[in-house]
Structure of Probable beta-D-xylosidase 2:
Amino acid sequence: MKTGIATTTMASLPQTIILFLLLLGAFAQARDPFACDSKDVKTSSLPFCKVSMPIPNRVTDLLGRLTMQEKVRLLVNNAAAVPRLGIKGYEWWSEALHGVSNVGPGTKFGGAFPGATSFPQVITTAASFNATLWEAIGRVVSDEARAMYNGGAAGLTYWSPNVNIFRDPRWGRGQETPGEDPVLAGTYAASYVKGLQGNNGDRLKVAACCKHFTAYDLDNWNGVDRFHFNAKVSKQDIEDTFDVPFKMCVQDGNVASVMCSYNQVNGVPTCADPNLLKRTIRGQWNLNGYIVSDCDSVGVFYNTQHYTSTPEEAAADAIKAGLDLDCGPFLAQYTENAVTRGLLKEADVNSALANTLTVQMRLGMFDGEPSAQPFGNLGPKDVCTPAHQELALEAARQGIVLLNNRGPSLPLSHLRHRTVAVIGPNSNATVTMIGNYAGVACAYTSPLQGIGNYAKTIHQMGCEDVACNDDKLFSGAINAARQADATVLVMGLDQSIEAEFRDRTGLLLPGRQQELVSKVAMAAKGPTILVLMSGGPIDVSFAKNDPRIGAILWAGYPGQAGGAAIADVLYGTTNPEGKLPMTWYPQEYVSNLPMTDMAMRSSPNRNYPGRTYKFYKGPVVYPFGHGLSYTNFVHTIASAPKVVTVPLDGHRHSGNATISGKAIKVNHVRCNKLSVGLQVDVKNTGSKDGTHTMLVFSKPPAGHWAPQKQLVAFAKVHVPARSQRRVGINIHVCKFLSVVDRSGVRRIPTGVHNLHIGGIKHSLSLQPATLGVIKS
Ligand SMILES: *[C@@H]1O[C@H](CO)[C@@H](O)[C@H](O)[C@H]1NC(C)=O
Ligand SMILES: *[C@@H]1O[C@H](CO)[C@@H](O)[C@H](O)[C@H]1NC(C)=O
Ligand SMILES: *[C@@H]1O[C@H](CO)[C@@H](O)[C@H](O)[C@H]1NC(C)=O
């Protein structure tokens, strides 16, 4: 979103205003119906208000009653009222990336709704690799969103989640995403969207939106910003990487909306590209919902990119490409003239509106009284409930990643480590813990408070803020570490370093943070533990290699209860189970790497290292999927096929162009139900109960298209100490064992695919069904 809206915390408001808001809240009225108010007999008896009629018929009826002037005012986020038909104005723009957010004009905190449960930032939640958790968070967020809607404080259309690939470690918005792997991101998207939208057929609890389609993952780097960026992307990388989370969001998550991005892809603004919108999202993937622009991106491609010569052409191009709703005023201003000038047909406007009106009807907005509808009973009592806040804590516990544990130094013992020096610019963090696209949290537990529940603390900031420009506060920190039984340094980043419109310039800790950590570790009496808060990866090689630093934890931005979760992990009440959702590169990786170069694959002849664990082969600080536990897990394969036959569809057979290069085109394969089933035993050989996060990678047969490995499945299992549990894994062959050729065609390589699970390997041979077996 372009518009920055200042985050207001309750704490920053004067007491009198808070009192006023609370009084107001006490008398908060339920929202009036958006349309079809039974008190208005004239309009509520019109056919589009008939709940018993199929939605497409209701939409057609309503479209038939609207004038052109009325129609164009419905094409924008602050859609105008149509009083003569009993329809109120509606603000489409609300956000709920990891809790109901105060970004976007559709949502207002205050009154009966002073806060909402603020879950960890998405990159942290992704590290749990727990799809059940992602869906559960979506359910809680949509409960709170519906409650706020009923109270007149929020909309029903949420432009979340952000499922762009975290392609470059410097990206300021990487924190909002589920990481660098397309299958992880797609699974996250589908799960969170299901949680938000509910499970009631075509009816929607709230409407989610997967954004920003596509190849958008640069905000502002070296003079290039997202409003001017033309992402040059190969067909291979589109199909293999950038499209995957969006396709899974639409097909597996049934999302009700997709947002196109600011940038161009191969010279065409995404919001003006019929190939991307009409052909791919709606045509191939069958989106059941609406396509929305990023905020003012139609204006941006006209005014900033000069993509068309008149604004009417820009409006016409966007709608003809398949755009249904403009976040911004542009389409309300220019669409009518575009129709008058013959650049666009009224029928094109009607199809756009049919998509948005259908979503509003699926949300129940044309069904009269909100209180008489499903979720109509949700209200202030359903926001920030103890159960919701407990889930925010649980999510942080599941997402924290133990990167290093020398000795081991962790967990700390509340008997031996009675005083703890808690040091660092993030040691008493609150708002920092919720990252961007957050709301107003219900309450916070800072790291200092969390650790204070286990030990006596000596608090020192060490640096004034994360920029850490001087060493004025170093000596206090060093003295604290000298006295305490253990030292915990809570360091890292915040939104002043990485944010929307702010990409990082490098990967090291900012300012003099590194120096503070080393000096404190040198002086510390007890073990020194480094806790990092950040969205993007940090090159902490200095700490990894320093024998005085006992352990390193990454907490991401752990949400409102983050400090409690960090303390639970430090003291072993929680056995860490998170795994890195992105590669932690060394600083040198970015020194010669333009953020603007979109290529995923490495290219040795132009000294290009490639991106993500799938294609980059150089040294890393910590790899994708890294994460330790306080116990030890051992895998064995209990059962798995050695050979899998790939059945070709009726008219194909082996030895033909279909399997050129020994890789069968996926759309020549009978994919339905073609999957590989594995049974894996996971044994906890340690003395602590733990939850194992199992990642299954496949190494396809070598060839120029294939990544060195790719994530094909993941699963979680709780295993008590000295016990064993069996885990079933199903790998969809066409989706996950395929690779993409240079023309963007997905193919299944025949031959040996090696599956890697932790330290073990299983070879799987994929063979095309031979001639004669398949009968046409
Ligand atoms: C996944 O998360 C859910 C929700 O917090 C939790 O109930 C479940 O135990 C988690 N799964 C595992 C295996 O830990
Ligand atoms: C920690 O932060 C809270 C909330 O911002 C503040 O009230 C408290 O004084 C801080 N504690 C210390 C020791 O700085
Ligand atoms: C490949 O298929 C084409 C028809 O699509 C057929 O004419 C040709 O003979 C086949 N080639 C082989 C080697 O089987």
User: Anything to note?
Assistant: Residues 655-657 surround 2-acetamido-2-deoxy-beta-D-glucopyranose (ligand 3) (CB under 6 Å). The chain has three domains: 27-377, 385-606, 632-773. The radius of gyration is 27 Å. The first strand starts at residue 78 and ends at 79.
